[in-house]
Specification:
The complex is a heterodimer of chains A (184) and B (147). Chain A has 184 residues and is of the alpha+beta class. Chain A is built from four helices and ten strands. Helix content of chain B is 31%, strand content 31%. Chain B has three helices and six strands; from the N terminus they run H-E-E-E-E-E-E-H-H. Chain B has a six-stranded antiparallel β-sheet with strand order 2-1-4-5-6-3. Chain B is extended, with a radius of gyration of 20 Å. The chains are: A alpha+beta (184), B alpha+beta (147). At the A-B interface, strand 3, strand 4, strand 7, strand 8 and helix 3 of A face strand 1, strand 2, strand 4, strand 5 and helix 2 of B.
Chain lengths: 184, 147
Amino acid sequence: LELTYRRSPGNERGALVPATVEDMIVNYRTCEFTTVFRDGSPQTWPVTPLLLHDGRFLVCTSIGLPQKALNVRRNTKVSMLFSEPTGSGVSKPGAVLVQGDASVADGVFADVLADRDLAALTQTVLDRQPRGAMMSSWFGRRFFPFYYVRLLIHVTPRRLFSWSTPDGSSAPCELDPSELNHVG
Amino acid sequence: MWGEAAKAMAEFSGAVVTAIDADGYPVSVRVAAPRYDAQTGRLPVVWPSDFAVTAGPANVLCHYHDEGLWSIRALQIKGRLERCSEDWTFISTDFKPPSGALMTLWRLAKSSRTTGLRYLHTRGLKSPAVNWESLRELRRRITADQR
């Protein structure tokens, strides 16, 4: 696996973050987010996550589609696979797997500016998905009244793997998840 | 049934297989060229030895979005992962054929409204008023950034 490395701004210890891994995490439009259902089976959805400054991830869902959050409240173990490069502009797409522990913030959020990280994630989605404006139009408000009533899920990475191609059949490179600090 | 799943899967560029590892964490790998058997619903998966994946419940997700994160399509197959000598195989157990875009949107509108009301009711919460001005403010920021 060929990786180029980039020093993270503000990283006083001098730990190095693989630039290719960072590019995939930050620029891929979606990741495949998995939570565990009450019967022990994995449930996987494509979601847009945001890497936060402290190395955690933020994922949102609406109260109209709360299954991810309900699963996390029962079982905190989750994973995120970044393997779909469409629209990312990443020139040499690979894949990144994050395994971690998740928690659901108390309450529901109907004001996207009420939380700084929620605002950043919502702005990212609005920017990447121009036609998503439909969800705040008359149509969206009428038929999806809870779309912008959000639940916040934070993921703390425990293990981090990367591949140089999207296909996961080869041996991955294991990285230190603490290197994600300062990247977001 | 699996013939329909195979036909639907062929419309995607790859499939993501997810199972559970020995520590209880989900673990996913993308299969770039899935060899899904339309007769048996079986999909061979090469699982790197770095993951202590376990036999048991698993799923397959195929999804697509365009450059503008739109035209979203997805396909999900439930199943289980089994080990046959040294090889791993995903074995399908349930699959719902994808509906057309309009039907999917209609069903989603109905179910998300019902589910949202139930979520609030269960927790004794009133339906909160969405702050639409905050969304307009975020759009203004995007427009300003693009200038």
